[in-house]
Amino acid sequence: MFKNKDEFKRDFSQRLIEYCGRPVSETHKTEKLLTLGEMVRDYASINWKDTKEAAVRTHAKQVYYFSMEFLLGRSLTNNLMNLGIYGMVRDGLKDLGIDINELEDLEADAGLGNGGLGRLAACFMDSAASLDYPVNGNCIRYQYGLFRQVIDHSGQQIEVPDMWLRLGNAWEIRKPKHSVDVKFWGNVETTWDENGNMHFRHLNAEHIMAVPYDMPIIGANTKNTNTLRLWSAEPSEMTPDGMDFRKYLAEVSEICLNVYPDDSTDEGKFLRLKQQYFFVCAGIHSIISAHLRSYPNLDNLGDKIAVQLNDTHPVLAIPELMRVLVDEYSYPWDKAWKIVQSVMGYTNHTVMSEALETWPIQYMSSLLPRITMIIQEIDRRFVESVQNRFPDDPYMSDRVRIIRDGQVHMAHLAIIGSHSVNGVAEIHTQILKTDLFRDFYRLFPERFSNKTNGVTQRRWLLYSNPQLKQLLDKRIGRAYEKDIARISDLMAYVDDPHTQKDFLKVKHERKEILAARIRQRTGIQVDPDSIFDTQAKRLHAYKRQLLNIMHVIYLYQRIKADPGFTMTPHTYLFAAKAAPAYVFAKKVIKLINAVSYVINNDPDVRGMIKVVFLPNYNVSMAEVLMNATDVSEQISTAGKEASGTGNMKFMMNGAVTLGTLDGANVEIDRVVGRANDVIFGLDINGIRSLAPNYRAIDYYNGDERIRNVMNTFIDGTWNGDPEDFKPVYDEILNKNDEFFVLADFDAYARAQEEIERRYADRSGWARMCLVNIAQSGYFSSDRTIRQYAEEIWHIKPVRP
Predict the structure, then answer these.
(1) Given this model, what pLDDT does residue 352 score?
(2) Engineering a disulfide at 115: which of 138, 194, 243, 538 sits with its beta carbon 3.0 to 4.6 angstroms away?
(3) Which of 458, 538, 551, 577 is catalytic?
(4) What is this structure's pTM?
(5) Which of 32, 148, 459, 649 is the catalytic position?
């Protein structure tokens, strides 16, 4: 492969000619992008081969990270940077009259996820590869992403297809030789042999081929290159008897159409369940095949393989591995079960019991008859063991069993079938132990641990914020690039006036870049000298975007009521997608846009407030948004957010957290100190004390500010229609404000005043931001992955 700029130019030009049949000057930019991507992939392929060979040669234990989502973002810049050839390629393209930035902007974000769950998985993959750990991903190759968000003239979210594969995917390689036959529907035939052993055959099944597409996950400063395997559904040669072939093709194509199809109908529920089994069945088969190429049997599977289940979506991997061991390799049940538990680990991502995944047993038994039989047997044996252990607590077994009230409780299956259960922030893990899974913690205290989430500093600082990186390089050298803990060396400079001044220049430059992007995307002109206050995350009631916009309305009402009122100019930035069927969340988006339109066009505001909703929030947008932000809004109801990772990305780029003591905010607050963030509102104990007697109407009646704000939801203030935002009003008053928005309103308003007070002290503000950057090393996913590797997976680095 090319070793210098001239070799790159020669190879790139030759490839374009071979690919397009035209010289470089006559090729389209999309052809240039695909050719460049394939060149970079091929450049990494030698390392990819060496990595696989090293794992086999050293008999290394390997990890397979099963996740419904991998929100990778764009890969071109990240891969070039990780390979250390970005400058060479950039300069070579420039000599050929090609701007690398134009090609970077042309690449689509990979549509392989929705939000934090998928982005965490992507950060973990980057860290594992960069630290030389043999960790491979397993997911579905979605044809379309979640959706592309468009905001119509009324401010409402409209979902249109996210065609991320429209130009193709230069990073993937189709591997049909590793295809797997996946079976749905049908029935199970039970027979006995002459020794009295039972045997099971899945008959009359619908067969679908799972075809893998492999993408390289390229480590930084190493040859190590891991694999993300994406499974695509294709027709099987064993087509169902008597089934209309066109209907069969439609069912096949639905599986990989997009992530999280609407499950409000029976058809949607079956499709989601089908997706989940499809990729875990294929993934388990792939693991078994690879293992048997190196070892004579599966006895040592737990010593050589670890499967991490990222939330409950992949939990069917547990009964599927049991099925393979018992049905296909004739392992006795008890021995197979020990192997399964030694292989599986489960990461929980929610503290809300209503969000824990369940499936009606009749759905599962129809679609997955043999898997259902295995789950029923796991449940039966487990109930019996719990009854024997707790004879004085007759209800214990019913509380923890897998199948209850006709529902299969996937989190229960995950805990029972795994040797490890972890939360993703200290407060989250504590809630799992003492509340959500307290019975399981009584049963298996040794299984529970905490692994606070992290983010990869390579994408979220080193590559996306070159201005800040340059400042860090000048002050503390470059050791922190490989060992992010060394970023704490910056603490020696937080009181230095020159460093403070240089940081504020960096932040202002990033704000100007974002302001240009905002104007391009929305047509709204924002002031880079204003406070950029950002809430960027999935739209959900517990994340309380409503609290944020209510406070903005309160400030607007103060401006309108008092001509002498002044405040530091603020730009309030919102970025969020709402699930298509989540009516309340979509109504809040419409409200934010309606408020934005009124405030931004009111001359009385005099530049004090701008409100901007950034449509179609994704990884690429986040890379520009987070490093330009001054205030990071992390205002979820205490006890509801498992961790959050946006809070870490903002912190790493020098934003000050305005937040509740929820999720990883608790740990951010501890490492930076209360002088370097702004914490407000009820903590989890306060919520629990208040909840039994909480009456939202009392806050409405007792606080004129709240009452004036909420009345705008029913008097047509924002768009002339008094009915449009009444559901928001009703959610708070008629449903008694489930997430304590009104209870925290006063504290939030005072916290915003504190932000403004601190921001006025430019030296003090710069110091706060620098402390946040200096203390962000703990929140690197490098640290998280080391903890998984050492404490759950028990793996060591493998260097090709």
Answers:
(1) 85
(2) 538
(3) 538
(4) 0.97
(5) 649
